[in-house]
């Protein structure tokens, strides 16, 4: 399986040399972001920018490619070296984190751009290795939210399925896990931080029952009912009940292939932020579930196409 991550150009100003004491703070998430009432934003560079290079023993080739020069959307593409057969790989598109609705717009652009690259037989190094008819959208936390909303904007035939890892949703009514789940110090996600993220992300005047935040308000769209979805939930995450309610809403709306997997004894973003032995085991389980889900959905799609061919023409 090949994978692509998208990184739209941030519209935020980053300036840590200013005099914050001269400004009034509107929102702050400790150690992550500080937004002032005059519109100035400070974000410390927690994750370093790294070049597209990987250790050879990983067996993966990666490279950067431009999607849209006007908005500076670019993607990093990862392709396993082991695929020496003539079979093209399915493509997993990983959604970014960025202010809304720009990230949704950029996600749709990325999917359309992929289809165009294959249609025009683009000479880019990765296009000959991927099957653009087998596209899966995926992401974790805010990226999973973006993957779901982007899927709503696409035609059902454009993607094969969704991989949603701890999808970042919310709502005005608190769930039990939001109210009672005890979080360790410096937790990756607290209720207060989640509320601040939504205040920063949603349109002015919108509350947490806005469809971008709470997709259960309106239920699943009709086009999603035949789409396979894998929803990965962390047992110690404040979003646990929210994620499970989301799965229940999908099934109640007629979505027939929704798989929810709960990962025991780990919290939000464990696959990135936690290096404990338990987390390493859960990361391996997560990868296995994703591989199994994609293989199963591809087989389902193939069987569905065969059944269509067997139908007598009218």
Automatic annotation (TrEMBL):
Domain Alpha/beta hydrolase fold-3: 94-271
Superkingdom in the source lineage: Eukaryota
Family, similarity comment: Belongs to the 'GDXG' lipolytic enzyme family.
PANTHER family assigned: ARYLACETAMIDE DEACETYLASE, CARBOXYLESTERASE 6-RELATED
Protein name: Alpha/beta hydrolase fold-3 domain-containing protein
Organism, scientific name: Rehmannia glutinosa (Chinese foxglove)
């Amino acid at each position: 399986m090949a994978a692509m991550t998208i990184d739209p150009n941030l519209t935020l100003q980053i300036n840590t040399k200013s005099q914050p004491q001269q400004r009034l703070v509107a929102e702050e998430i400790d150690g992550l972001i500080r937004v002032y009432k005059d519109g100035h934003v400070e974000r410390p560079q927690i994750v370093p920018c790294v070049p597209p290079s990987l250790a050879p023993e990983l067996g993966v080739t990666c490279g950067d490619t431009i999607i849209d020069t006007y908005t500076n959307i670019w993607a990093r593409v990862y392709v396993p070296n082991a695929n020496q057969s003539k079979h093209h790989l399915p493509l997993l598109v990983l959604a970014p984190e960025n202010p809304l609705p720009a990230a949704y717009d950029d996600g749709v652009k990325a999917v359309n751009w992929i289809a165009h690259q294959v249609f025009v037989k683009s000479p880019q190094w990765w296009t000959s290795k991927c099957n653009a008819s087998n596209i899966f959208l995926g992401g974790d936390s805010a990226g999973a939210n973006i993957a779901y909303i982007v899927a709503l904007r696409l035609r059902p035939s454009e993607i094969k399925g969704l991989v949603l890892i701890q999808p970042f949703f919310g709502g005005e009514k608190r769930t039990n896990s939001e109210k009672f789940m005890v979080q360790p110090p410096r937790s990756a996600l607290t209720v207060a931080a989640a509320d601040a993220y939504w205040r920063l992300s949603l349109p002015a005047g919108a509350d947490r029952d806005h469809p971008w935040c709470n997709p259960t308000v309106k239920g699943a769209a009709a086009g999603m009912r035949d789409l396979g979805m894998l929803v990965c939930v962390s047992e110690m995450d404040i979003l646990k009940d929210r994620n499970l309610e989301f799965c229940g809403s999908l099934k109640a709306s007629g979505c027939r292939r929704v798989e929810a997997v709960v990962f025991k004894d780990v919290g939000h973003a464990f696959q990135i932020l936690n290096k404990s032995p338990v987390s390493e085991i859960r990361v391996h389980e997560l990868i296995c579930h994703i591989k199994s889900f994609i293989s199963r959905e591809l087989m389902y799609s193939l069987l569905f196409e065969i059944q269509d061919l067997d139908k007598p023409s009218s």
